[in-house]
């Protein structure tokens, strides 16, 4: 289930697209009603080609650290330019991702079967998959949302202090890996 913050202009996925440096950003799954810029997820282009490994490292550096880290599926040396993102759980959007011709898809909470099916349907290994924490995928939006809310309240004559909690609400504490 997605919220207004997921589809709104300046919402969760817009903030992710901006943080990852995407240009020419449009909704991944445009809203049926409302503004043309509204919809779930975003897709856009990196200013220059990057390897999947370098882009995944960028995602890891930008998002808050969590025990589960960042999971990546695809050729580490594969080149990517077109990037689809969806803050929160987005493995229901694989048809839209394929239609967008994205080289890579960044979202959270990818389940085994949808991710496996996406890889099986991939053309030339694409879209590569980057699975991040649900908390981490949405956290970057909180300062932007707080600022927007503060501006609206100030415009209405209210003097309110808004603080974004720094608590990591990711439910996982540690992960075991081979080696």
Plain-language structure description:
This protein is of the alpha/beta class. It is globular. Strands 1-2-4-5-6-3 form a six-stranded mixed beta sheet. Helices cover 34% and strands 25% of the residues. The chain has helices spanning 4-7, 12-19, 52-62, 94-99, 112-121, 134-139, 141-155; strands spanning 23-30, 39-51, 71-73, 79-89, 104-108, 128-132. It is built from seven helices and six strands; from the N terminus they run ααββαββαβαβαα. The model has no long low-confidence stretch (mean pLDDT 93). The chain has one domain: NIF3 (NGG1p interacting factor 3)-like (Udp-n-acetylmuramoylalanyl-d-glutamate--2,6- Diaminopimelate Ligase, Chain: A, domain 1), CATH 3.40.1390.30. It starts with a helix and ends in a 24-residue tail after the last helix.
User: Strand content of the residues, in percent?
Assistant: 25-35%
* Mean pLDDT rating: 93
Going by CATH, the homologous superfamily would be NIF3 (NGG1p interacting factor 3)-like
Oligomeric description of these chains = single chain
Order of strands in the sheet with most strands: 1-2-4-5-6-3
- State the secondary-structure class: alpha/beta
As for the number of domains, it is 1
Helix coverage percent of residues?
A: 25-40%
- CATH topology-level fold name: Udp-n-acetylmuramoylalanyl-d-glutamate--2,6- Diaminopimelate Ligase, Chain: A, domain 1
Name of the top-level CATH class: Alpha Beta
So what's the overall shape?
globular
**Major sheet:** 6 strands, mixed
The number of helical elements comes to 7
CATH architecture: 3-Layer(aba) Sandwich
Uncertain stretches of 5 or more adjacent residues? none
Radius of gyration: 17 Å
| End-to-end distance | 37 Å
């Amino acid at each position: 289930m997605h919220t207004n913050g997921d589809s709104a202009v300046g919402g969760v996925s817009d903030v992710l697209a901006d943080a990852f440096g995407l240009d020419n950003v449009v909704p991944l799954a445009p809203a049926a009603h409302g503004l043309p810029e509204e919809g779930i997820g975003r897709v856009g282009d990196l200013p220059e080609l990057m390897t999947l490994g370098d882009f995944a490292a960028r995602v890891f550096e930008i998002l808050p650290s969590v025990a589960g880290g960042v999971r990546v599926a695809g050729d580490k040396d594969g080149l990517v330019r077109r990037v689809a993102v969806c803050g929160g759980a987005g493995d229901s959007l694989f048809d839209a991702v394929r239609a967008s011709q994205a080289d890579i898809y960044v979202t959270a909470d990818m389940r085994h079967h949808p991710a496996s099916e996406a890889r099986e349907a991939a053309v030339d290994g694409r879209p590569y998959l980057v699975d991040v924490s649900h908390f981490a995928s949405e956290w970057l939006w909180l300062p932007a949302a707080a600022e927007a809310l503060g501006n609206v309240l100030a415009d209405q004559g209210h003097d309110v202090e808004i603080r974004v909690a720094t608590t990591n609400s990711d439910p996982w504490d540690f992960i075991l890996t081979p080696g």
